Amino acid sequence: MMKIGLIVFGFLLGTGIASGNRLHGRVFAFFSSDSTTVYRSRDTVKKMPVSQKLYDKVMALLEDGEEKKNNVLFFFGPHYSSDAKLGLGVVAAGSYYLDNPDSGLQPSNISLYTDITTKGYFMAGIGGNNIFPKDRYRINYDVYFYSYPAYYWGIGYDNASKEENKTKFKWQQTHVQAEVLIRLVHRIYVGTSLITDYVSGKDFETDKLADIGQRHSIFNFAPGIMLVWDTRDIMTNAYKGVYFKIHNNYYSGLWGNKYIFMKTDIVLDVFRKVWRDCILALDFHHQANSGNVPWTLMAMAGGSYRMRGYYEGRYRDRNIVEMQMELRQKIYRRHGVCMWIGGGNVYENVDSFRWKNTLPNFGLGYRFEIKKRTNLRLDYGFGKGQTAFIFQINEAF
């Protein structure tokens, strides 16, 4: 969502939920230190850095927590960017079973997150996936609130490519999304969704919206239908499998929408092992909007999941097509790295699509497995004249 210039991974708070309601937790700190702790062997005196000792304790405690079927981890860290200045982010990641843990089904998951900065950026949200016994039903949800100083260049590639079109404003958004899926056969699901957004754009330096007849504050509500084919072994960090989803949402005047349109999202992800501890992940996404689409819900390039490195919302239009290919390599114990390459294109319609307007994207990342198949993700993405440092939980796709 915003361009991160520097991340300092500060503190990690780990807890595991045991049987009953008892909660066990410890606080860890990661830091550099020149001080040493002395310990004795049989006939020699050796020195171990304090940071190494703490690291070893953290590893042991994390491995301990993996023995629990239901657990949650909390971690937080400061960060800095030229846009948001100094900030502090807090994330909690939990996994649990609604079925017998030994049934072979993957666990359900939940993530809670919040962030606040000295420049006025605030975010809080919760999201997760509930997998019911025998995987007959799934409920996915995502709820968040944003408030931050943002920038707007206008609609279309041409407007976004000109720096002089940049204007500052305040963006506030409340988003609620829920999906209910029913398994038809094996790994094929059908379902319905409800999405509601309230977006308010305030204090524009230059009011570009009045010129195109767009409102500053917009409420949208839409039911939807979807078809999903999911053979992934783990949703949050797949090693193998395929994920295909086609999702239609209808923004009708019957629901009180001022802007009447339809949104279609198509996602195709493929995961394959290429050599030892290395996964090749491919992601394709296409979003098409037909009708009177508001500026707040147009297809946008950028963010922390696709087109990493671009300021989300600079390039926006009615449609987008984007692809990325990522290599994920585990290095040692809980440590891993990744690299990706991709591109995307925003356009108004098929006739206006231009290959020369395709935006390049590539980057490098570091992974730390805070618990089994759940990674802390630090990515540095490069775009066309833009870069971003991203601090997140779980893989980008």
The SSE string, one letter per element, is: EEEEEHEEEEEHEEEEEEEEEEEEE
- Which percent range describes the beta-strand content? over 45%
Radius of gyration: 22 Å
Outline the biggest β-sheet: 19 strands, antiparallel
The whole-number mean of residue pLDDT values reads 84
Structural class: mainly beta
Question: What features would you describe in this structure?
Answer:
The protein is built from 2 helices and 23 strands. Helix content is 5%, strand content 59%. It is mainly β and 397 residues long. The two termini are 16 Å apart.
Summarize the model shown:
The chain has helices at 50-65, 157-160; strands at residues 6-7, 11-17, 23-29, 36-40, 45-49, 71-81, 85-96, 108-117, 122-131, 137-152, 167-185, 188-202, 217-230, 241-251, 261-275, 278-291, 299-300, 316-317, 319-332, 335-347, 359-371, 374-382, 387-393. It is mostly beta strands and 397 residues long.
Please give a handful of descriptors for the protein shown:
mainly beta; two-stranded antiparallel ribbon; 23 strands
What order do the helices and strands come in, and which of them pair?
Blueprint: E1 6-7, E2 11-17, E3 23-29, E4 36-40, E5 45-49, H1 50-65, E6 71-81, E7 85-96, E8 108-117, E9 122-131, E10 137-152, H2 157-160, E11 167-185, E12 188-202, E13 217-230, E14 241-251, E15 261-275, E16 278-291, E17 299-300, E18 316-317, E19 319-332, E20 335-347, E21 359-371, E22 374-382, E23 387-393
Antiparallel strand pairs: 1-6, 2-3, 2-6, 4-5, 6-7, 7-8, 8-9, 9-10, 10-11, 11-12, 12-13, 13-14, 14-15, 15-16, 16-19, 17-18, 19-20, 20-21, 21-22, 22-23
